[in-house]
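In practice, a research group might receive sequence data for several interacting partners and want a quick structural hypothesis before committing to experiments. The following worked case mirrors that situation: the sequences arrive first, and a predicted assembly follows.
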Amino acid sequence: MTKPLIIGLTGSIGMGKSTVAEMFERHGVPVFDADKEVRSMQGSGGELLEAIEAAFPRSTGPKGVKRDTLGQLVFGDPDALSRLEAIVHPAVAAKRIEFMIEHGGAPMVVFDIPLLFEKGGHESVDTIVVVSAPAEIQRKRVLGREGMTLEKFAHILSLQTPDIEKRERADHVIDTGVTLAETEAAVTDLIAQLSAER
Ligand SMILES: CC(C)(COP(=O)(O)OP(=O)(O)OC[C@H]1O[C@@H](n2cnc3c(N)ncnc32)[C@H](O)[C@@H]1O)[C@@H](O)C(=O)NCCC(=O)NCCS
Ligand SMILES: Nc1ncnc2c1ncn2[C@@H]1O[C@H](COP(=O)(O)OP(=O)(O)OP(=O)(O)O)[C@@H](O)[C@H]1O
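A structural hypothesis for the assembly, expressed as tokens:
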């Protein structure tokens, strides 16, 4: 049995990764969603709560990690962020292995990984898809989210590989600055192209 083609899906904050990942899923491609795994392990009863509470006292409660509180502690403090990543990232890697065992028979799978370039994950995927939209659209989407401030947005951007560099390093770019229908058509075209290349 051949191994599934691993598609690494990434993009900067608000570029439409989750939306495009759902499109892949709708068209039959299993998706490993790194952010979703993190949220579940950080949620109520989640397996990372004890370690996070020990490293960041009072950052968790009955509903799990207090995301705003923890975000304020780590976004802006590189050492604190590294400590959090050292707890979270190995646990995500273990979940990814479980996912690959479960979907070992699929022709292709998507790894939806926000920090694909930043954390070196690009080396372990077969092809890289970057979602991208004009900066002004990205800004409008992100600033429209509850709890987001200009300062937080600027800081998160500064932690992420710039969009222009992501685009250059991508094997395929999916434009999300167009209608959802146009983006979905680009996704189905790409699935067909990747299937044909196998
Ligand atoms: C600090 C936390 C609790 C804040 O949660 P919150 O819901 O406020 O933000 P959210 O997770 O939606 O992230 C907002 C934006 O920041 C980006 N971001 C998150 N973590 C990081 C990071 N370690 N480095 C750079 N960007 C990051 C996300 O990709 C997203 O674009 C959370 O981001 C977290 O646990 N981060 C560490 C784990 C991690 O690296 N996750 C991302 C990849 S799996
Ligand atoms: N053509 C399009 N493609 C994708 N998303 C679109 C498009 N047009 C509008 N949108 C909207 O833009 C938003 C993109 O948000 P989404 O959560 O997918 O981004 P994200 O990159 O996963 O964000 P983050 O990195 O912050 O987690 C959604 O509300 C989506 O409906």
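Before designing any experiment, note the following. The first helix runs from residue 17 to 26. The chain has two domains: 1-30+106-198, 45-102.
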